[in-house]
Write a structure and sequence with these properties.
- The structure is a homodimer.
- In chain A, strands 7, 8, 9, 10, 11, 12, 13, 14, 15, 16, 17 and 18 form a twelve-stranded mixed β-sheet that branches. In chain A, strands 3-2-1-4-5-6 form a six-stranded parallel β-sheet, with helices on both faces.
- Chain A contains 14 helices and 18 strands.
- Chain A has helices spanning 27-38, 40-47, 75-79, 96-106, 116-133, 149-156, 171-183, 187-196, 205-208, 211-225, 244-252, 314-331, 377-387, 420-431, and strands at residues 18-23, 51-57, 70-72, 86-89, 110-113, 137-138, 162-168, 235-236, 255-266, 269-280, 292-299, 303-310, 362-372, 392-397, 401-402, 407-415, 418-419, 441-445.
- Chain A is an alpha/beta fold.
- Chain A folds into three domains: 15-146 and 316-349, Rossmann fold (3-Layer(aba) Sandwich); 149-310, Dihydrodipicolinate Reductase, domain 2 (2-Layer Sandwich), CATH 3.30.360.10; 360-445, Alpha-Beta Plaits, CATH 3.30.70.260.
- In chain A, α1 crosses α12, α7 packs across α8 (187-196) and α13 (377-387) packs antiparallel against α14 (420-431).
- Chains A and B meet through α1, α2, α6, β12 and α12 of A and α1, α2, α6, β12 and α12 of B.
Chain lengths: 451, 451
């Protein structure tokens, strides 16, 4: 790469650069700064203006920075600096960040943020305020890191009625699921490894219990369907209960287990759910491994489209921050009423489609249990399922398993589509059988069929 | 999908709809029209305005349309209609379309086009004229159909120095390569099948010889590197010489053959090439099958990102046409100098980086030949390769093959990276060996490694 890029156009010297102030200078702040310095020419060739970070508000001003900027512990100094055009919120959290962004909007500054929790929880209010004040809040880095998936849905698929989307939107979770399959390791040992590698936090709850994915899913669902952000209505189930056995049985059945965020337009409203999911191993998204993210979007006109890339990391997320900065620069002169709406749909055209209760959602299921190796056990199980309107696509009875007392056999079943409420009822009844020697584990199955 | 979308905001009734005129009403024109009618509410909820097709210029006005529009055989009527805001060129070809688009620009109308050949050949001139006149030419449907990959590169990756991109950007070619692998069929029988299915034209040259892919690649390369369109400098090689044996040997070596368009920033300038390519079968893009398209883009900050979807078809391409219409609507009020530049970089910041000659490009190669089953043959082959500075990663000598006269054995080799000129020299020398009983076939190999 020793090729010289040409100088940005000569006129640029005459144009005042766009000045950015950072709130927070951690991993993403540093990544953003590094990119703006290293690719300064390339970015100016595109944006028509130079983009410069003037200062950053941090907790400790003694830290190193990627280049010459002012560090301050006074966040107000950044927000009230009249030279600063755009505020970049990269500090995380939902309290201080919320109040600072609000102040920034009220001061007439545009905002770029990587903060998914903040958008998921306070987005409705902040977008409304920003709309009122004629400023932009850009948040591409908040979902799927460097993948321009917000732009794709919000601008690239505007011709479509979006039917559903399914995403691997948490890299930690996907790393764990991938390692469990590739290495045959169990959840807790892979989690430890992920923590050692820095892919998982010391307290991994947000990632492995699906809360982070739920934040992102609620954002994607709003963009896809034109509904207000409703994080609190996302059904969320983590991956900590997935066992090595489930991973192996899924493979044997031609499936892979992924932790997916799914948003779907159904007859009863909008489904929003984050849970481990068996998907056919031939699907492209089933082959998205390690910490990578991918979002599969099904539009009625375009069919399925998929967006893949790094969902986290200093420069991958920084890439999305810079893209948003350039977007804001390019839109500065546009009539605010004609800008791309924050949630893809015009604020006065948002829909109040109901969000489905998980009990009313129908999917297929993978069910695993241990049953006594006795005559009639399978008949009992299938009768209960049948009585509850559940038909089976396949049933596998494995080799006998020596447990401490009795001889048990693992039974693995795939059901046809059934409402969750029905399945729960059937599982309750199954649990009363004295011939079932274990908990009854179930994982949802999605074919992600696109036609 | 019996859920009602809400009405677009009430104010919309007061806003004049955006009026579109079509040049051409074939597959894509009809698809676009169908989408605009079916998703009218959803589109207006996003764009803030209704988008309506008023009329279409066609060769024969007796044809059916998807809804109420005027058909005319007089293209001028569309261009000079003062009620029409945006001209959609969906007629194809590079002569009449070129002159009509020019007239549209001169009349101050914005243009949306799906015409890759036109953009690849006349884009530099047309963009310059459009820039002068302050109008937009949008061309998302010209590359990879419904996948918003132009938007991704032009707007989503603006923070990156793009290092390379590799795309499956011709659905016909990918269908053929997929069927050859899945069904074990040979090129000509799969081509016939593709023609019967309507995936390939009666004269398939544009698709199977890579010309269509080269049009698209030259566009992607300009967007990625900020260089003028230089279609004539794309090295182009088709898939018609790929045999069933190559497909099988590639699989055996852990590779898959895909017809790729590759653009790469190298030390000598920019590489632009379309050719069959062996890629490791575990890469996500190696698993893009059938008529689907995908573009893998490697940015220095974001790393690899991939965009996947339908590359052709009435509504998939129509989806991109509508997205461009909405983009134009959203940008109407912006200062023309601040719009997203046609070729991603500011027109006065385009670079004159040289385009590499194919002889100067280094890749690894797959080589296949038939050699006499005699002592010393492999030694002769490897000596010639070695003398030309070519080292082998692997060599497979297969079981003997009964040919009419002598006994020959297929020899399959994978080389390390070598300049094309060196390889050509070696192949010339190999061809003089009397112990080589066949043509010497070679296919480039790319690892598409992303770190």
């Amino acid at each position: 790469m020793n090729q010289q890029s040409p100088q940005p156009d000569v006129n640029n010297n005459a144009i005042k650069p766009i000045v950015v102030g950072l709130l927070g200078y951690g991993t993403v702040g540093r990544g953003t700064h590094t990119i703006l310095l290293r690719n300064a020419k390339e970015i100016a060739r595109r944006a028509g203006r130079h983009i410069e970070i003037k200062s950053a508000a941090v907790r400790n001003t003694k830290r190193d920075t990627a280049g010459p900027i002012n560090l301050t512990t006074d966040h107000q100094e950044i927000i009230s600096d009249p030279e600063i055009d755009i505020i970049c919120e990269l500090m995380g959290g939902t309290e201080q960040a919320y109040s600072l962004i609000k102040q920034a909007i009220l001061s007439g500054k545009h905002v770029v943020t990587a903060n998914k929790a903040l958008i998921a929880i306070h987005g409705n209010e902040l977008f409304s305020l920003a709309h009122e004040r004629g400023v932009m809040i850009a948040f591409e880095p908040a979902v799927a890191g460097g993948i321009p998936v917000i732009k794709a849905i919000r601008e690239g698929l505007t011709g479509n009625t979006i039917e559903w989307l399914a995403g691997i939107i948490n890299g930690t979770g996907n790393f764990i699921m991938t390692e469990m399959r590739d290495k045959g390791a169990d959840f807790s040992s892979v989690l430890e490894q992920a923590q050692a590698l820095g892919y998982a936090e010391a307290d991994p709850t947000f990632d492995v219990e699906g809360i982070d994915a739920a934040h992102k899913l609620s954002i994607l669902a709003s963009l896809a369907f034109g509904i207000p952000l409703q994080f609190e209505k996302v059904y969320t189930e983590g991956i900590s209960r997935i066992s090595q056995e489930d991973v192996l049985y899924a493979e044997e059945l031609g499936y892979r287990i992924k932790h997916l965020g799914i948003a779907k337009r159904s007859n009863n409203g909008i489904e929003m759910r984050v849970h481990p999911t068996l998907i056919p191993h031939r699907r492209l998204i089933a082959n998205v491994d390690g910490v990578m993210n991918a979002v599969l979007v099904k539009g009625d006109a375009v069919g399925p489209t998929l967006y893949y890339g790094a969902g986290a990391g200093a420069e991958a997320t920084g890439s999305a921050v810079v893209a948003d900065l350039v977007d804001v620069v390019r839109t500065l002169t546009a009539d605010p009423e004609h800008r791309v709406p924050h949630l893809a749909f015009q604020p006065d055209a948002l829909s109040d489609l109901p969000i489905c209760n998980i009990e009313d959602i129908a999917t297929s299921y993978y069910i695993r249990l241990l049953a006594s190796d006795e005559v009639g056990v399978l008949a009992d199980i299938t009768r209960i399922l049948c009585d509850n309107g559940i038909s089976l696509e396949s049933i596998i009875q494995k080799e006998a398993h020596q447990t401490s007392v009795t001889q048990s056999v693992p039974v693995v079943m795939l059901t046809h589509e059934v409402k969750e409420a029905q399945l729960n009822k059937a599982i309750k009844q199954l649990a009363t059988l004295t011939t079932i020697d274990s908990n009854i584990y179930r994982i949802r199955v999605e074919t992600l069929a696109t036609n």
